């Protein structure tokens, strides 16, 4: 009897995946990252790892069973890191939950231990992978990941203030009724409550803020301060309403992965070594606009900021440096 021709081989051409992303942590954020990558068809394969076997298995099965409705991404997972082999990018969302009364430094120590467990395993199977940190506090943990990995600085990236920047673009766009894609602004420095919006470089469709006599009064200083407060408060509001945040960070991570995997050389506000910028003397990680391609960070944009913005950036990097040094890495 003739052998039935193979019509759906799971074998890979030359044995390696074309483009594969591993996500460490199948929690709220990790699954939002996976869902965003899969539904947009940004990569050919998504591997998920977690230490909680049943939750991981349930999430993988559930996402796999949507395959007929998506562009056709191979999805699999395991508690065994061999499943991550040949990843181009490893996204780290694994983190400990902050317990009642636990200090920030105690939480950092727990998350550093997670990095010490996971990064050697990831690099064992994908020695040339780019590491993309999401776990908080993301700037400090990106520094720690760089130290633990021993990899070149441009290949260890944190999502940094890219989510902060995306949220601000959305809020400005809502206020003046235009697409967020026409709002050009950067938030730099430390991700979260102490981030630094670079108002001096805000442009709407190429028009400087100062020339924009918009009826909403967006150009007034009070309005700008309120917008930055809204970026921070919205994160806390979402936590109050649904207990966690996931969709915006998942879409943000997928967008960063798309730029890297497609070699687009688009610019994202991500965490990297900022020593030498704005007078930073120490080896400290914070966010600046960076050009991303298949090598990771190829360039850091020397964004011109005013004196107030520079001062706030330096204050943030001083604080970050102290916390980074406290990790002992
Ligand atoms: N950078 C940002 O903009 C941003 C935005 C939102 C959330 N976050 C951060 O993302 C992280 C994850 O948030 P979440 O809501 O998904 O939390 P979560 O608790 O839902 O998920 C964390 C997952 O990590 C797993 N995990 C813990 N230790 C592990 C280990 N050693 N190996 C493998 N997996 C391990 C857990 O089992 C869990 O599934 C948090 O630190 C959060 O602050 C960052
Ligand atoms: O960074 C986070 C984590 C958080 C969060 C943190 C404070 S309020 C909401 C989040 C969600 C779920 C769990 C945690 N845990 C956590 C937070 C901080 C940390 F240092 C360690 C763990 N954080 N969710 C978010 O959307 C973001 S983005 C954000 C937060 C504050 C100001 C501005 C921004 Cl754009």
UniProtKB/TrEMBL annotation:
<dbReference type="InterPro" id="IPR018177">
    <property type="entry name" value="L-lactate_DH_AS"/>
</dbReference>
<dbReference type="InterPro" id="IPR015955">
    <property type="entry name" value="Lactate_DH/Glyco_Ohase_4_C"/>
</dbReference>
<protein>
    <recommendedName>
        <fullName>L-lactate dehydrogenase</fullName>
        <ecNumber>1.1.1.27</ecNumber>
    </recommendedName>
</protein>
<comment type="similarity">
    <text>Belongs to the LDH/MDH superfamily. LDH family.</text>
</comment>
<dbReference type="InterPro" id="IPR022383">
    <property type="entry name" value="Lactate/malate_DH_C"/>
</dbReference>
<dbReference type="Pfam" id="PF02866">
    <property type="entry name" value="Ldh_1_C"/>
</dbReference>
<dbReference type="InterPro" id="IPR011304">
    <property type="entry name" value="L-lactate_DH"/>
</dbReference>
<feature type="domain" description="Lactate/malate dehydrogenase C-terminal">
    <location>
        <begin position="161"/>
        <end position="322"/>
    </location>
</feature>
<dbReference type="InterPro" id="IPR036291">
    <property type="entry name" value="NAD(P)-bd_dom_sf"/>
</dbReference>
<dbReference type="InterPro" id="IPR001236">
    <property type="entry name" value="Lactate/malate_DH_N"/>
</dbReference>
<keyword id="KW-0560">Oxidoreductase</keyword>
<comment type="pathway">
    <text>Fermentation; pyruvate fermentation to lactate; (S)-lactate from pyruvate: step 1/1.</text>
</comment>
<dbReference type="InterPro" id="IPR001557">
    <property type="entry name" value="L-lactate/malate_DH"/>
</dbReference>
<feature type="domain" description="Lactate/malate dehydrogenase N-terminal">
    <location>
        <begin position="20"/>
        <end position="158"/>
    </location>
</feature>
<dbReference type="Pfam" id="PF00056">
    <property type="entry name" value="Ldh_1_N"/>
</dbReference>
<keyword id="KW-0520">NAD</keyword>
């Amino acid at each position: 009897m003739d052998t039935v021709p193979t019509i759906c081989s799971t074998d890979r051409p030359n044995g390696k995946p074309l483009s594969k992303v591993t996500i460490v942590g199948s929690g709220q954020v990790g699954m939002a990252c996976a869902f965003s990558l899969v539904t947009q068809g940004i990569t050919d394969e998504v591997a998920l790892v977690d230490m909680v076997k049943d939750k991981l298995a349930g999430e993988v099965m559930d996402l796999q069973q949507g395959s007929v409705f998506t562009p056709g991404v191979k999805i699999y997972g395991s508690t065994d890191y061999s499943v991550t082999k040949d990843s181009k990018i490893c996204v780290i969302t694994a983190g400990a939950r902050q317990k009642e009364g636990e200090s920030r430094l105690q939480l950092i120590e727990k998350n550093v231990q997670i990095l010490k467990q996971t990064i050697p395993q990831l690099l064992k199977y994908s020695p040339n992978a780019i590491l993309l940190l999401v776990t908080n506090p993301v700037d400090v943990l990106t520094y720690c990941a760089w130290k633990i990995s021993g990899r070149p600085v441009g290949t260890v990236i944190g999502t940094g203030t890219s989510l902060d920047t995306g949220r601000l673009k959305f809020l400005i766009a809502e206020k003046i009724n235009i697409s967020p894609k026409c709002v050009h602004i950067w938030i730099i420095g430390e991700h979260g409550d102490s981030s630094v919006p670079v108002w001096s470089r805000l442009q709407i469709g190429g028009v400087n803020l100062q020339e924009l006599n918009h009826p909403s009064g967006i150009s007034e200083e009070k309005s700008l301060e309120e917008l930055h407060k809204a970026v921070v408060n919205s994160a806390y509001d979402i936590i109050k309403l649904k207990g966690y945040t996931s969709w915006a960070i998942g879409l943000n991570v997928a967008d960063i992965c798309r730029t890297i995997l497609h070699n687009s050389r688009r610019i994202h506000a991500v965490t990297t070594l900022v020593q030498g910028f704005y007078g930073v003397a120490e080896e400290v990680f914070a966010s600046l606009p960076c050009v991303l391609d298949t090598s990771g960070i190829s360039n850091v944009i020397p964004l011109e900021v005013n004196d107030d913005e520079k001062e706030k950036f330096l204050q943030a990097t001083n604080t970050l440096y102290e916390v980074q040094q406290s990790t002992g890495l």
